[in-house]
Amino acid sequence: MSSRLKELGKRPLIMGILNVTPDSFSDGGRFLNPRKAIEHAVSMIRAGADIIDIGGESSRPGSEGVSIEEELERIIPIIKKVRDNSDIFISVDTVNSEVARAALEAGADMINDISALRIDPEVAEAAAKRNAYLILMHMRGTPEDMQENTEYDDIIGEISSFLAGAAQKAIEAGVKKDKIIIDPGIGFGKSAEGNFTLLKNLDRFLKLGYPIMVGASRKSFIGKVLELDVDNRLEGSLAAACYAVLNGADIVRVHDVAETKRALTIIEKIVAA
User: Fold this and answer.
1) Residue pLDDT, tens place only, 52-64
2) Of 101, 179, 253, 261, which is the active-site residue?
3) Looking at the domain covering 10-272, what would its CATH class be?
């Protein structure tokens, strides 16, 4: 297993996004070809990524799921190739335990479950068996219907309670507490204002006692405020990533690794001054 995650909690880590899908909201179709996917993984590693998050099923708003067979066909060859050529920490973005088990067997180190075990509770058992890291993210419903209800009476309290419960389920399934990472789920069943509220109050999730991941890169709430399409949201994404890190995030999940690395390097220097 890569030693890169030994830095977790000591400095902000960068997770580079590799969507091996035809329909992801930002880069759908760009890396469906295995050769291009590998080239992109290599470029993100060179740019300073600490983790590569490989996903074979889109989770953009309104997206529908794919079969387990198709998901496996998309990601397993990529995981194997990346593992054969690098010690980079590999995460797999999946909600299916069968996919999780195959990915870990192929060389992945981490499972990124956007459903926090709601869709397939056995994902926790798969992670526990391999002593793998497990990311638990808050999402209402599924990607297909998650934006139909974005109202909360107490968004921080409700999400905190949900994540605490999900983490406890993972622990009961055998996942070690120090292998659990939580994600409030920016953009997943939240309004634009709700996403800003989560970022502003991110430090309130620290009381749960788990490392925090934030994925705000290129998302629609940034585009809504700046009135920019998905290809022109770099500055907004960097602002969100920097604020998240200053407010407690341990990992930021991003599309633009090199630019994020540069921005966070300056943030680290300021904090350490």
Assistant:
1) 999 988 766 655 6
2) 253
3) alpha beta
